[in-house]
Amino acid sequence: MTLALYVAMFLNLERPYWALVSAIFLQVRPESGLVIEKGLCQIGGNLVGALVGIMILNGFAPYPTLALGLLACWIGLNSGLSAMMRQQNFVYAFAMAGMTACLVVLIVMASPTTADSAKIFDVAQARISEIIVGAICAVLVSQLLWPVKVKHSLQLRAKNTINQTLNYLALELDPAGLHASRHEHIDTILESISTLSDDASAVIYEGPQGRGQNHAVNLLCNKTLSLLAAIQIFGRLQRNHPQLVSEPLAKILENMRSCFTLMAHSSDYQECYKMARSLRHQVQQNLLQYQSKTPLETRLLKATMELSADLIMVLKSYNVLTSNSAANLNAPPMEFHRDPLIGLTTGLRSMAVFMIGASLWIGTGSNAVLMMILLPVVFSIMMARQPLPMLTTGLRHILVGIIIIVPVTIFYALPLLAQSSGDFEILILVLAGPFFIGLLALANRPTLPYGLGICVPFAVLVQPSNNISFAIENTVSNALAIFVGVTVLYWLFKLITQPSERLMQYRLLQSIQKDLVNLAQRPDPTSWFNARMGDRLLRIATYEKGSGHSSRVFTDLAFTALNLGHVSIRLMRILQGIPAAHLESALHLWQLSLGKAFITCAQGKVAKEFALSCDTLLQELATSPLPPEELTMIEGMFERVNLTFERTAHTIAEQKEATEK
Questions:
Q1: Which of 294, 481, 599, 611 lies 20 to 30 Å from 418 when distance is taken between CA atoms?
Q2: What is the per-residue pLDDT for 290?
Q3: For residues 53 and 124, what is the distance between their CA atoms, to the nearest angstrom?
Q4: Rounded to whole angstroms, how far apart are CA atoms 421 and 214?
Q5: Tens digit of pLDDT for each residue in 279-317?
Q6: Cβ(345)–Cβ(496) under 8 Å?
């Protein structure tokens, strides 16, 4: 931050404090890879925003109302798109695109008598220079002075995620395990996977090993979801249909539970890897030795093999992430669920913030009102993808930070600077204390909003430059404008809320239904389906957790969908080598029935068509050259899926009845 301010002042830029603001935003998660990624996003967004600002002014400078309307649409577009982005770093690009366009248009319009093509270009060039200087300086310092690598945080999070998953696997196989405890573990695992996936893209910038580590994280997240899908089979069978668990199968599950518990308590990779390989060998032996198997048991034993294979791949991914291994691992990154309704709501909210500020600016003509527009617009875009409770809490904390820093600015910073010699060293000494406290808050996730509320307004209120203005009345006006703007933003978030949680849950389930139907069209369906399900599972779990329902039936249904996808993929692989063309129509009908049965189950009903489509497909397979053991396995799959639909539909129907009463 000091370097950014020094370079901006040395270059005699018009408003060096915007370089300072740019550097402040890059101190949120200061790991070097993340800073580089955020810096590139800031620069890209800054260039695009400046270009849009120039285009608006060139075409509509004589028509200020139209120009402000177009600017409002641009801000709404950036806000809406930011709400549909997965990586938080990419949100900075949209925030900078909106803020830079605002700065260019509003600064030029504030002095209409001097507005011409040269003035527009000069303003745009100055804003671009200030933001780029701040971003480049922050990146250089993060690389050269005590760099903190994002790969270290990824390694720690990956280890925690694996341990959490192993504990959950053991808990799921424990017949005495509590429902609430299982869902606490699931919530934690899904949040860890989401954080891992978000940060993985930044590790690419940390050296030649970065791309391989990025692929390892993607595979680890992907295979962890496969483990969660597989373990659901055994846990639910033990709890809901204990009569179907034979004694040999119960011994296998108990052995697996003991192995998962030992692995969770071990901190040695090699030991865990050996235990996983040993578990897989034992499962293979059990599969060969256990002769009198029902179709359901055949399928369950095969599922234990798949589970142990996925666990080995998770451990291999962790090994690549933590070592210099050159293993070629790959999987698609987790996909962010993009719902246009959320983007539309978020965009309208940011447009409303801008239009309220713009109306007050036109009505009063006060330049202080510009601060009421700029910072709330940036905050509305940056925080667009957060859940409403977290978002409103964050805005309250930002307001607290503003309340703290305003008197510090008025009674501490400006009086000292007014009496100083004007040397840069004195300027830094005066600014160091408040910024140090704000940066400490920025470094800690729970106190991050306080840090934003301290650092950004402090830089904007003091406005350090070669010609600092010490007019207290201007500082008070700017402080009041910032506080009112963030307050307006807070209430707009309360008033213009996202669609209801029930509606969003149902739309998520509809998206899952479409994926279940279209799985066959994907070249790598397992990785594709896991990547798309990760964020959806987290959203459904978050919505249901916020609703207060302790049963969490829709979270269970979402995990059922994850398992149904894997069942469908296994069926396609088994039938892949069968040349019978007449199977295609029966398989396609079964796939459509599976999607319909899933969405019908979400309504608390059982789709009888699915059982009929299963029978039809089995009849077709009976006349095909399919090995008898494979046919037995498919029969076991269908039996288990039908049991799952019946049980889940009954649970959802009971909850609906209880809610209506």
A1: 481
A2: 67
A3: 8
A4: 51
A5: 888 878 877 676 656 777 777 778 888 888 889 999 989
A6: yes
pLDDT (tens digit per residue) in 391-434: 888 899 999 999 999 999 999 998 888 887 778 888 899 999 99
Contact residues for 9 (Cβ-Cβ < 8 A; gap 6+): 16, 424, 464, 465, 466
How far, in Å, CA of 470 to CA of 418, rounded?
7
H or E stretch at 147: none
Higher-pLDDT residue of 509 and 469 is: 509
Q: Nearest Cα to 348, choosing from 526, 83, 88?
A: 83
Alpha carbon 560 to its chain's center? 22
- Radius of gyration in angstroms for the set of CA atoms belonging to the chain, rounded to a whole number: 29
- Token digits of residue 88: 């938080």
Q: Which residues are CB-contacts of 251 (< 8 A; sequence separation ≥ 6)?
A: none
Q: Please tell me the distance from the alpha carbon of residue 194 to that of residue 190, in angstroms, as a whole number.
A: 6
pLDDT at 72 over 90: yes
pLDDT at 183 (0 to 100): 87
Residue pair 303/173 in contact (Cβ under 8 Å)? The answer is no
- Residue 643 burial class via C-beta count within 10 angstroms: exposed 0-12, middle 13-18, buried 19 and up: middle
Cα distances (angstroms) measured from residue 461 to each of 306, 375, 440, 465: 60, 12, 20, 12
DSSP string, 374-392: HHHHHHHHHTTTS-HHHHH
Residue (of 324, 363, 348) closest to 75 by Cα position: 348
Q: Residue 4's closest CA among 568, 583, 428?
A: 428
* Rounded-to-integer distance, Cα 160 and Cα 604, Å: 36
Q: What is the pLDDT averaged over residues 24-49?
A: 88
Please say whether the beta carbons of 26 and 455 come within 8 A. no
Count H helices, E strands: the chain?
A: 25, 0
Cα dist from 577 to 298, 321, 478, whole Å: 20, 36, 71
Residue 639 is encoded by which pair of tokens? 């039996």
Structure tokens at 602: 């979400």
Residues 6+ apart with CB under 8 A from 209: 151, 324
On the 0-12 / 13-18 / 19+ scale of CB atoms within 10 A, 454 is: buried
User: What does the alpha-carbon distance between residue 604 and residue 8 come to, in Å, rounded to a whole number?
Assistant: 63
Is 388 within 8 Å of 83 (Cβ atoms)? Answer: no
C-alpha dihedral (223, 225, 226, 230), degrees to nearest 10: 140
Domains and their CATH numbers in the chain: 2-148+339-495 (no CATH), 152-322 (1.20.120), 505-660 (no CATH)
Cβ proximity of 616 and 586 under 8 Å: yes
Candidates 107, 133, 102; CA nearest to 120 is 107
Distance CA 60, CA 591 (A): 54
